[in-house]
Every structure is written in C-alpha cells, then in structure tokens.
Write a structure and sequence with these properties.
Elements (H helix, E strand, L loop, with lengths): L7 H5 L7 H15 L9 H15 L2 H17 L12 H9 L3 E3 L2 E3 L6 E7 L1 H6 L1 E12 L14 E3 L8 E8 L2 E8 L8 E3 L11 E12 L8 E4 L15 E7 L6 E3 L2 E9 H6 L1 E6 L6 E6 L8 E4 L15 E8 L6 H13 L11 H9 L1
Parallel strand pairs: 3-11, 13-17
Antiparallel strand pairs: 1-2, 4-9, 5-8, 6-7, 10-11, 12-13, 14-15, 16-17
C-alpha cells in the first residue's frame, strides 16, 4: 500500500489532541462509509487505503508520537511502512474493530473476535532488565458445552426462514422516483442467520461465555513508557469458529525518584560536600542494576554541575544491541550552618587563597548545557 503525505488527522477528520476513543470512532465511521463493497465512489478504495494508513499510525502510541514530532519524514526515517490491506478479506479488518458479523457481497461471514486492552505498571529497573507480568483479562471464550454452535448438544440448527440465513432482510419501497431498497438486520435472528431450536443452557445461544483469564506477558528489556505489546489471538473468541481477536497490553513505567530517562540514557544527581569536591573522595552512585550501587573516585577539584558519564550503564536498546549511558550530575553542597571554629578556618583558608586557587575554566552555563547534551 503506497503511503500518503496528507495530514493523518485531516484524513480522519479529528483534532491533533484527539483521544484514542475519538480516533477509533472516526475510523469506524469512515471505514463504513468508504468500504469498497459499499461505496460507489470511484476513488473509494484509494481513500479507504489512506484512512487505514492514518489509523495504523495514530492508533499506536509510538508511531503517533513520532508523527506528531517529525511528520511523515520522521516515520520514514524511523522505518515505518504501512501494512498491506487485503481487500478480499475486509471482513476480518472490520471485525477487528467491531467484533461483529459482517455482510460482504450479500454473503454473511462470521466476524473475527474483538480485541482486548489492558495496562500494566512496572518499575524503571524492571524495564531495564526485562520482566514478566501476569495480566488479568475478562474475555469471551468459545462455549465448551456447545463448541460455539449456540445450540444444546444433540439439537438442530437451521437457517432463519425470515432471511434465508443471510442475517439481513431487504425492504423495497416504491415511489414516483423509483424503487428504494433498504437493508437491515433480520429482526427474527438478530443477524445470526440461524434458528436455534434449543439454545445451549451454558451460553444461552450466544456460543461464547465470558470468563476471567490471566495471561503471562513477556516485557522486553528497554521498553518505553506507553508502548504496547500485542498478543495475537488472545482477545475475544470469534463467532462460529472465526479467529479470535488480539490482546494489547500497554506498559506504563512508574517514575523513579533516582533517575530521569531520556531515550536510552538515564540521568541522576549526586550530592558532595565542598571538601569532597575540592579534595576528591570515593562516592557511591545508584545504578539500574537492581539495588546495586557503584563506587566512584571523585577527582580533586570537581566543579558544581560537572557530569560524570558511565558508558553502557543506561537502558538497553529495545530489540537491538548495546545500552545507553548513565549521566551523573554533580551537586556540590554548600554548608548552611557553621560553628565559630568552622568560620575561622574558612576565613583562614580564604586569606591564603589566590588567583591560582580557583581555576574558573568552563562557566556554569556551559557545564549545564554539556550535562544535557
């Protein structure tokens, strides 16, 4: 499917700050309108492709953020390629969002099960090393008693006589302008196209029952806050043996009081006294390796705002190789309360200091900019 350079928000008719629910609702409305088997517009298929592409980008947190920041060029540089849409299987595409039966070309096809969504929270250190979480879901599963047929075992299922098994009925209205054909869901079978003589006592004819399930989710090392993990086929069961939907687990990373993450690098601060900064000292700094702290030798003459870089101590590269860095910003602590003796000693030190005692070197703002670089 060829990409489009049109604004994705404009294609879906939504604002840039639209919520996930608004994005999905806009896509549903446009998909129904532009479906090539429904619309008679000559450009319906091409417009439908553009709408699908827009939804594919804006429905995922990572691609939406990339698009919001850098536009189409950012998507291309990030390796995004829109997926191929098989217009011979559009019922599967529609069922992925609607979780219902779809009628294409006058033939009823069982719909793919609807997708599920859940959220799991983890710590930053868990995101750094990868972890597993058990996530509870409430999902519709195929009824074990009737095997999804909806009928009590041993009883018969026949085609609905009102719609002939199509699940839809047509009403023809004649007027001076000609004939108008209105298609609607069959009221006798509620669109199922079947007549069940004896409904299953377990699922009451639905063919599915809702049950609590727990899925073990593998969270890869280096995952970013807000990214989603797709579990194929773990969503709601489909109707009449159709494929199940997918489950999407959004990973949220709790703020860590020790670190701030920026890409694959992490930033932290360490406080040292003026004597430690002047004379040098052995200090300990936190790391992402669990509760482990690392000992560092602080050089004499360390300045406020100086940055110490620990190569390869940051976050792992998601689905790649290597790790980012840990950057430690030195905060020199100035005493607030002094005894008379301490004041005397500091004054004596100041009297013996000269221009060679303080080497100004790089200014404070230059150090600050270097730290954030």
């Amino acid at each position: 499917m060829a990409t489009t350079d049109r604004d994705y928000y404009e294609l879906l008719g939504i604002e840039r700050g639209a919520s996930d629910a608004e994005i999905k609702r806009a896509f549903r409305n446009l998909a129904r309108e532009l479906h090539p088997d429904v619309s008679e517009e000559p450009d319906a298929e091409e417009r439908f492709k553009e709408v699908v592409e827009a939804y594919e980008v804006l429905s995922k947190a990572e691609t939406r953020e990339l698009y919001d920041r850098y536009g189409h060029a950012g998507l291309r540089s990030g390796g995004f390629r829109p997926g191929h849409v098989d217009f011979g299987n559009l019922a599967d595409l529609f069922a992925a969002f609607f979780g219902d039966d779809i009628l294409l070309g006058g033939r009823r096809r069982p719909g793919r099960g609807a997708d599920l969504a859940a959220t799991v929270e983890i710590e930053l250190v868990d995101a750094a090393r990868g972890t597993t979480r058990d996530v509870p879901f409430e999902a519709a599963v195929t009824c074990s008693r009737c095997d999804g047929a909806g009928a009590e075992p041993g009883s018969s299922v026949s085609a609905c006589p009102a719609c002939g098994g199509a699940g839809r009925v047509q009403q023809v209205t004649r007027s001076v302008f000609g004939e108008f054909v209105r298609t609607q869901t069959c009221p006798d079978c509620a669109g199922s196209g079947r007549r069940i003589e004896k409904p299953c006592v377990e699922c009451r004819g639905a063919g599915r029952v809702v049950e609590e399930r727990t899925l073990t989710v593998e969270i890869p090392a280096g995952i970013h806050d807000g990214q989603r993990i797709r579990l194929t086929g773990e969503g709601h069961a489909g109707l009449s043996g159709a494929a199940a939907g997918d489950a999407y687990v959004e990973v949220r990373i709790r703020p860590d009081e020790r670190f701030v993450r920026e890409g694959n690098d992490v930033y932290t601060t360490v406080g040292v006294t003026i004597t430690q900064a002047a004379l040098g000292a052995t200090i300990t700094v936190p790391t992402l390796d669990g509760e482990e702290e690392l000992e560092l030798e602080l050089e004499p003459g360390t300045q406020p705002g100086q940055t110490i870089v620990l190569r390869g101590r940051g976050m792992p590269v998601l689905q790649g190789f290597g790790r980012g860095d840990e950057r430690i910003l030195v905060n020199v602590l100035v005493p607030r309360r002094l005894t008379d003796e301490q004041r005397r000693l500091l004054r004596a030190f100041d009297e013996h200091a000269d221009e060679h005692t303080y080497d100004r070197g790089e200014g404070f703002f230059e150090k600050l900019k270097s730290a954030f670089r």
